[in-house]
Q: What sequence folds into this?
C-alpha cells in the first residue's frame, strides 16, 4: 500500500488538470473583451457584432465644412483651379450588420436621404452659380469583415475587411459617389487595463481615373466604465483629411443603445464638424 502510494503520488502531482486550459482561456477572453464584448469589430465607432446577431442602426449626421475644396470643371463649369467653398450636408442613414459566426460579418451602410449644399468661393471667377444644391439617395457601401485570430494574453486580435462603394449617383456632382471604389484594409485590436486599442490601415482603388491610394487609417480607444456607459475616441483620416471623433454610448437595455458622437476636423480640408446621433437595435 505504501509502495503503491509512493508510485501514484508523483504521477497525480505531475498530471495536468485538463479543465485548466479551458478555464484560463475563458478568463483571458473575459478580460480582453471587457470593454468591447464578444464579436467582430464593425466599421462603426466602438461597435461589435456577435455571431448570429443582426445590428440595425438608423442615424442622422450633419456635416459642415467652411473649406471644402472643389474644382469648377469637376462640377461642370470652366476652370481647373482649386477653390475653397462652404459645404453642408444633412443625411439620414441606415446601417446593417450581421455576424455569420465568431469571425465573419457582413455590413451595409446607406444614406437613404441626403441634402448637400456647396457655396461658391468669393474669389472663384467661373460661371458656377453662387450655390449648388442636390438631394436624394446618398453614399452606399458594403463590407465583409474577417477575424483571422482572436486576441490572447500575448497576441493582439488580427482582422481584415473589404469594402465596396457603389456609384449610384452618376448624375450628381456634390452628392454621393460617381465611381466604383474598392477598399482593402487590415487591423489589430489589443486590450489594456486603461482601455482597448485598435488600429487599421487600408488601400483604396477608384475606377476613374483608375488610381490606387493609401486609404483610410484610424486609431481607436474604447473603454467600458459601467454596464450602461462606454466611451470611445477615434482619430481617422486619409491623405490630407483627418478628424477626431469622441463618442458616448448609453446601453440602456441588452437589445438597444444610444450612440452620440461628433467629428472635429484636424486638418484644413477635413469637415469642421460632423455630429451624429442614432440608436443601435440588436436582434
A:
Amino acid at each position: 500500500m505504501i509502495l503503491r502510494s509512493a508510485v501514484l503520488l508523483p504521477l497525480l502531482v505531475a498530471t495536468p488538470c485538463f479543465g485548466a486550459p479551458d478555464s484560463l482561456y475563458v478568463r483571458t477572453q473575459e478580460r480582453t473583451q471587457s470593454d468591447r464584448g464578444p464579436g467582430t469589430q464593425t466599421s462603426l465607432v466602438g461597435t461589435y457584432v456577435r455571431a448570429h446577431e443582426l445590428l440595425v442602426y438608423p442615424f442622422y449626421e450633419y456635416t459642415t465644412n467652411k473649406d471644402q475644396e472643389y474644382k469648377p470643371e469637376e462640377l461642370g463649369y470652366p476652370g481647373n483651379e482649386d477653390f475653397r467653398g462652404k459645404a453642408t450636408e444633412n443625411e439620414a442613414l441606415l446601417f446593417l450588420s450581421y455576424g455569420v459566426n465568431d469571425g465573419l460579418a457582413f455590413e451595409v451602410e446607406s444614406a437613404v436621404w441626403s441634402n448637400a449644399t456647396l457655396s461658391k468661393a468669393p474669389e472663384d471667377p467661373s460661371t458656377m452659380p453662387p450655390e449648388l444644391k442636390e438631394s436624394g439617395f446618398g453614399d452606399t457601401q458594403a463590407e465583409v469583415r474577417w477575424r483571422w485570430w482572436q486576441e490572447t494574453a500575448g497576441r493582439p486580435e488580427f482582422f481584415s475587411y473589404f469594402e465596396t462603394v457603389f456609384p449610384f449617383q452618376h448624375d450628381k456632382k456634390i452628392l454621393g459617389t460617381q465611381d466604383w471604389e474598392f477598399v482593402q484594409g487590415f487591423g489589430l485590436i489589443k486590450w489594456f487595463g486603461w482601455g482597448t486599442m485598435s488600429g487599421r490601415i487600408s488601400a483604396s482603388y477608384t475606377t476613374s481615373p483608375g488610381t490606387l491610394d493609401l486609404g483610410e487609417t484610424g486609431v481607436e480607444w474604447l473603454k467600458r466604465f459601467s454596464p450602461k456607459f462606454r466611451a470611445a475616441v477615434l482619430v481617422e483620416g486619409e491623405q490630407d483629411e483627418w478628424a477626431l471623433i469622441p463618442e458616448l454610448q448609453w446601453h440602456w437595455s441588452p437589445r438597444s443603445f444610444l450612440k452620440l458622437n461628433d467629428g472635429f476636423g484636424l486638418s484644413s480640408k477635413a469637415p469642421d464638424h460632423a455630429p451624429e446621433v442614432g440608436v443601435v437595435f440588436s436582434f
In short: The domain at 2-282 is CATH 2.40.160.40 (Porin). The chain is about 10% helix and 55% strand. Residues 46 and 200 are 13 Å apart (CA to CA). The first helix runs from residue 2 to 14.
